[in-house]
Amino acid sequence: MNLHLLDKIKQQMPSFSKGQKSIANYIIEEYDKAAFMTAAKLGQMVGVSESTVVRFATELGYDGYPQLQKAMQEMIRSKLTILQRMEVSNNRIGDDVLARVLEQDVEKIKTTLEETSRQDFNRAVELITHARCIYIFGVGSSEALAVFLRYYFSLVFDNVIHVITSSETAIFEQMLRIGSEDVLIGISFPRYSRRAVKAARFANDRGANVIAITDSMASPMARQAGCVLLARSDMVSFADSLVAPLSLINALIAAVGIQMKDQVNDTFTELERLWEEYKVYEKPESETW
């Protein structure tokens, strides 16, 4: 429904009241800004009441304004340039940057908890623990998430490959032997990388099980995946907010660790012995007195 939101508004335009037409025109012309406004703020911008905005949402077939707002956000999520996203983000933050950014991150984690499929999550854990080889990749800021996931999975499995995405040639070379017994975990958030989508499509064509960690079922990554784990992301100034995706990945690591309990225990027992033998970690000052 959100993919055709503007067409839907235009089709219903003749039936709208004067106030609703004002809302409709503002959304058509400034949807990148309207998508991040409250109903009250949108009403203020076009000179109508908050209740008029809510009624406008129901006229379009939504249960309320939050659904309309979500539809607008989904529609524009991958289309905004960095400068546009910065403008929207800066308008939303206000004066107390610390409080606002942390509050937004908390909200994204809550939304992630509500939207992520438990069935797909459990299926992902099952696929990972039984995979011959686990391929992991992320592009752009998502690369940091891929590195984090690879680090912990490498402590549990000896079959983890971090796919370096510096070029399309490198991607295909590293994934040359991927097959039906393998898993690809692809991490991609707006703006979606074509390299990420091509890598997922390649794995899919080879019969591998593709797990997408992304922000929406409308994501091009989701269309290539058998399991989709949704995590809300956003932009804070010029930086991507990946708190919720990281929290989801932490949950995935924990769930895999529980499934591989004996192997994890053996690994860390040996690691603790080595760390102590080779004095890897410095003890806190209080322990050296």
Summarize the structure.
The chain has helices at 5-12, 18-34, 39-46, 50-59, 65-76, 82-93, 97-115, 118-129, 142-156, 168-174, 194-205, 243-259, 261-277; strands at residues 134-138, 160-162, 183-187, 209-214, 227-230, 234-236, 239-241. It is 57% helix and 10% strand.
Layout of SSEs?
Layout: H1 5-12, H2 18-34, H3 39-46, H4 50-59, H5 65-76, H6 82-93, H7 97-115, H8 118-129, E1 134-138, H9 142-156, E2 160-162, H10 168-174, E3 183-187, H11 194-205, E4 209-214, E5 227-230, E6 234-236, E7 239-241, H12 243-259, H13 261-277
Parallel strand pairs: 1-2, 1-3, 3-4, 4-5
Antiparallel strand pairs: 6-7
Helix pairs in contact: 2-4, 3-4, 7-12, 8-12, 9-12
InterPro entries: Homeodomain-like_sf, HTH_RpiR, RpiR-like, RpiR-like_SIS, SIS_dom, SIS_dom_sf, WH-like_DNA-bd_sf
Organism: Solibaculum mannosilyticum
Protein name: N-acetylmannosamine kinase
What does this structure look like?
The protein is α/β, with parallel strands linked by helices and 289 residues long. It has two domains: 2-76, Winged helix-like DNA-binding domain superfamily/Winged helix DNA-binding domain (Arc Repressor Mutant, subunit A), CATH 1.10.10; 112-275, Rossmann fold, CATH 3.40.50. 57% of the residues lie in helices and 10% in strands. The protein has 13 helices and seven strands. The protein has helices at residues 5-12, 18-34, 39-46, 50-59, 65-76, 82-93, 97-115, 118-129, 142-156, 168-174, 194-205, 243-259, 261-277; strands spanning 134-138, 160-162, 183-187, 209-214, 227-230, 234-236, 239-241. The strands form two sheets. It has a five-stranded parallel beta sheet. It has a two-stranded antiparallel ribbon with strand order 6-7.
